Amino acid sequence: MKKESASHPRSTRCGFLGRLGYAEATALQEAARDALRAGTVDESFLLLEHPHVYSLGRNARSADLLLDAGRLAARGIEVHESDRGGQTTYHGPGQLVGYPILDLHPDRRDVRRYIRDLQEVLIRTLADYGIVAEARPQPEIGIWAEGRKIASLGVHLSRWITTHGFALNVTTDLSYFGGIVACGLPDVRMGSIESLAGRRPPLAEVAQACIGHFSSVFERRIEPLAESLVERLRVAAGRGVG
Q: Distances in Å between the alpha carbon of 160 and those of 26, 37, 104, 112, 214?
């Protein structure tokens, strides 16, 4: 990997991977993290969507899951524990999930700044679709527009290398949030680009907009996420790396 300088910003490999299962995506992140730590790959920014899943963060409570096993199975919803911050959220088709695997050392070792920068990427992306959005602090961390939560954030840092990230509702079926106490907020109202702007942009299009704003906010040079690298990470993940 090339060293970062004012004239040569750090490279980040970015790409939209389509639909991946939650466990597979987690293993892929861990493989990318370990390869970055070993210095064998550049940073990565994985953008994708998940099939129906409720993700339980480190602060999740059992009472936040409102459906029993039978109703979860009937709706085809998996449940996965996660080492990210935050509580319980929903991922599913029509939602853009972003997983930056970045090394914040040495110049960006500030968790609050990292969260603010992710929020700024999302705010700028939503502005491209005519949505005026804002960030809110804990315990309502996320992105809000017209009184509705349109994006959630939950991150994990290990020796200043990041995993997990954000989930942005694009054309998401918001009824699935009814099966949980989303983000620990019992009265929260969820929104999406579709519900607020009346548009149904393809996820790949929103991903490209997000990548552009990520480049500006994080001062990264964007490189394509080659399929050969993805396959290499999948092999590493399959071997239990991480």
A: 18, 10, 5, 13, 18
pLDDT at 60: 87
With b for 16 or more beta-carbon neighbours within 10 A and e for fewer, the 31-46 pattern comes to: bbbbbbeeeebbbbbb
pLDDT score for 238: 81
Tally of CB atoms within 10 A around 10: 18
137 preceded by a cis bond (ω within 30 of 0)? no
Is residue 80 within 8 A of residue 114, CB to CB? The reply is: no
In contact, 78 and 48? CB cutoff 8 Å: no
Q: For residue 7, what pLDDT is reported? A: 57
Measure CA 97 to chain center: 4
- CA-CA distance, 216 to 198, in Å (whole number)? 27
> Domains in the chain, ordered, with CATH?
11-233 (3.30.930.10)
- Establish whether 210 is a catalytic residue: no
Position 241 scores a pLDDT of 42
Catalytic residue selected from 183, 190, 207, 229: 183
Rg of the chain, C-alpha, whole Å: 17
Collect the ranges in the chain with pLDDT lower than 70: 1-7, 138-140, 239-242
pLDDT in tens, 9-41: 899 999 999 999 999 999 999 999 999 999 999
